[in-house]
């Protein structure tokens, strides 16, 4: 798709940062709002996306993968058997919000003339390739309905604009040109940035250290640089989750295709800190934590209780592997052992498997460095040395690798860095000097902040009545209180005459809106929404696809009702 943004005069009603599934769902929900009652103009809505066309995790579109829609992961069924699955295509961009929506997965299948074929397939889980095509189909649809998307632009800053607006600064990647746009509302959906172990970060960038998010586009060029090797290759995969195991299996297949080197197998090491790979809990009762109504439950809990619930259900999403994928890995590893036993009997040569998988458990990567190691007489490349500490014995060991793939998850704090560097941050008690450990809290915790901050002006929520008060200590030591009526989420309130202090806590409404603190100058008018960033207040489904359609509808309704 070519860039579709023009340069209209005036101010956008909404600018969305990013155009992945989250903001794609918002665009669809916005189109379905009744035009006669919705004050947000579709023609004044813009989304800014760094890719030059719609893409969704292109680095992990591995062959044969199926979706697990409750979380942004997938599995490979190497046995090719149809088995029960607790995930469903119905958790798409719109079905749970509006089953009759034109952007449901069923509507996509019908438009492609594949609905009956999908039903006959006998499995409710789409392949990752098909789901990616569905998302691209919806992207084309909403653009055809008037939604504007500026592709190929990277947002570099946001600032406070005039007349109650937000300024969004972006750089056109192809030309380096900087564009500045204004909006009355901002929806921040940054997605995740690849996360590397801290010790490995010190030797980045390196052509043979890649993140799983870039695996598919990087693995072939990486392996091509090592095909001239006259010895066996050593490759490490760091991680204990779904992506790590799928990368491991794919690498095993690729190295097997390359064949042995000098009659020696290539070595694949899976580096895990725990004692073993753990199966994800995919049961229907555990998955209730991803139900839409569970967001209300999580948001209503005290912060300590939310942390306990997230920890209790962590293995449904983090550091765990789909049981079918575990079975596939075990079959591969067992078959390799059988081959070795057969080949070793009577002095036979090793079978042409090409690669051998080893799981290095209880291994924590404590150090990484680059050294020189010859692949052959006329070629030298950098080899990668990892020092491991055994988490049980505390002993250290060192292994040299030719390549490292890190399936070590994602960071989701780019929005915070953007806000900290912005003049907007002060409205939320946030400065460039604020702690990197800044966290989110629910709206009712405003009162707690008031007690902790002393003379800091903060709102105090009074039960569920929607009445807020601001407490401020004047210079004469007398407290001042102002009664304030809130809107749907308790946002707008008169501003007192005391500046807010720098805070390590930001507050977010049930409908995903950042809540500004009172300031000395004027009421902060623009609304800033977060998507995919509020797991600690809204629960485990926040970074996933499970409630994406319902969340989009709630945000759009909140925007329209408080515009």
UniProtKB/TrEMBL annotation:
Coiled coil: none annotated. GO terms for biological process: intracellular iron ion homeostasis. Keywords: FAD, Flavoprotein, NADP, Oxidoreductase. The keyword Oxidoreductase applies. It catalyses: L-ornithine + NADH + O2 = N(5)-hydroxy-L-ornithine + NAD(+) + H2O; L-ornithine + NADPH + O2 = N(5)-hydroxy-L-ornithine + NADP(+) + H2O. Gene3D superfamilies: FAD/NAD(P)-binding domain (3.50.50.60). SUPFAM superfamilies: FAD/NAD(P)-binding domain. Pathway: Siderophore biosynthesis. It holds the Pfam family Lys_Orn_oxgnase. Its cofactor is FAD. Its EC number is 1.14.13.196. GO terms for molecular function: oxidoreductase activity. Belongs to the lysine N(6)-hydroxylase/L-ornithine N(5)-oxygenase family. PANTHER family: L-ORNITHINE N(5)-MONOOXYGENASE, MONOOXYGENASE. This is L-ornithine N(5)-monooxygenase [NAD(P)H]. The lineage of its organism: Eukaryota, Fungi, Dikarya, Basidiomycota, Agaricomycotina.
